[in-house]
């Protein structure tokens, strides 16, 4: 009899803790602006993510064994994904930015570094590793977090371009207001702010032209 | 009710992996960065349960489904950041990590509310926050 009492006690406790947990979940969901929609997308992206991750690891391993792979991409592909991501953030589009974060993980993981010097390869490896982490976070975060990660991602991509170069003219733009000053890259001279989106679309200046 | 009770008793026999280790590797954040004692004890109490190879388990970890909940937290926490393996990161990754650490402490996102609810001593006071953030910023600027 006593045992039953103890067990029921424990049971009640675990129920309480479970209830507490689900309350927390409910709160989180409410925090999302578009509630279930975001949740669904998160799940979709999650499975996609795993898939990409597998690809990434596979390719990294492959690269170490034999340099050169027809499916490897150049820096322009990474830049294209980055600019699309930037445009999604400019448009305040969380779901689209998630998709593009995942796309960026994939293009970064297949970036061909074989034509660079050993020192450049080492530097690129660090850049890619860091950029992939940020892109991965972007693929599953609410928009404020996406923007935080976009800041460091932008630095990584800027450092990448300094090594790989690009066929296009890029503009490094700068917003002094976001997080004590934050930069990003754009294909257009006109400033459209990815850190604030519609809230402060025109905030920022062109700092540098990269050719 | 009886069914629930049976399920509850049943799941107690499902094993979980415990996150415990006797050794502190040389790559540990505290060792590599010679963290001063006042900050060290704060980080140990507030971060290391989920962000290192060694968790100080509470007694109720023996009870399912709480054990699963904790296990899941620890796996995710370590995947994000493992202080024990700090020095294996590139300088670029360290800078990124410190940026995230500073941001999350500043905003009160870390330590998690669900954690400090039970571990009252893990909660950072405003003063703690300032001290830790200042120190982390200094570390980041001197990588």
TrEMBL record, chain A:
Keyword Signal attributed: yes
Pfam families, per the entry: DUF3347 (PF11827)
InterPro entries recorded: DUF3347
Keyword DNA damage: no
Keywords associated with the record: Signal
Record domain DUF3347: where: 78-168
Signal peptide: 1-22
Classification via PROSITE patterns: PROKAR_LIPOPROTEIN
Protein name: DUF3347 domain-containing protein
Organism name: Mariniflexile soesokkakense
Lineage: Bacteria, Pseudomonadati, Bacteroidota, Flavobacteriia, Flavobacteriales
């Amino acid at each position: 009899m006593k045992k039953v009492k103890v067990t029921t006690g424990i049971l009640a406790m675990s129920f309480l803790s479970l209830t507490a947990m689900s309350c927390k979940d409910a709160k989180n969901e409410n925090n999302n602006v578009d509630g279930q929609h975001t949740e669904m997308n998160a799940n979709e992206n999650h499975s996609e993510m795993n898939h990409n991750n597998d690809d990434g690891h596979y390719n990294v391993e492959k690269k170490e064994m034999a340099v050169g792979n027809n499916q490897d991409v150049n820096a322009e592909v990474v830049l294209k994904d980055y600019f699309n991501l930037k445009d999604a953030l400019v448009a305040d589009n969380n779901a689209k930015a998630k998709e593009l974060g995942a796309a960026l993980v994939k293009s970064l993981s297949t970036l061909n570094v074989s034509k660079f010097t050993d020192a450049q390869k080492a530097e690129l490896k660090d850049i890619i590793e860091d950029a992939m982490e940020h892109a991965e976070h972007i693929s599953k975060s609410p928009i404020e977090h996406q923007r935080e990660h976009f800041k460091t991602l932008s630095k990584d991509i800027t450092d990448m371009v300094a090594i790989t170069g690009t066929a296009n003219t890029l503009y490094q733009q700068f917003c002094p207001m976001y997080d004590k000053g934050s930069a990003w890259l754009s294909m257009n001279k006109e400033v459209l702010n990815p850190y604030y989106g519609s809230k402060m679309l025109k905030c920022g200046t062109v700092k540098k032209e990269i050719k | 009710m009886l069914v629930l009770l049976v399920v509850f008793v049943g799941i107690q026999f499902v094993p979980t992996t415990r996150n415990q280790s006797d050794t502190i590797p040389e790559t540990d954040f505290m060792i590599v960065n010679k963290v001063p004692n006042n900050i060290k004890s704060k980080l140990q109490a507030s971060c290391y349960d989920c962000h290192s190879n060694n968790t100080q388990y509470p007694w109720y970890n023996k009870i399912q489904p709480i054990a699963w909940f904790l296990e899941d937290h620890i796996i995710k926490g370590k995947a994000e950041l493992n202080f024990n393996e700090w020095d294996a990161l590139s300088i670029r990754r360290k800078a990124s990590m410190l940026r995230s650490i500073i941001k999350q402490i500043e905003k009160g996102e870390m330590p998690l509310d669900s954690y400090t609810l039970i571990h009252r001593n893990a909660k950072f006071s405003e003063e703690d926050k300032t001290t830790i953030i200042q120190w982390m910023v200094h570390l980041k600027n001197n990588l």
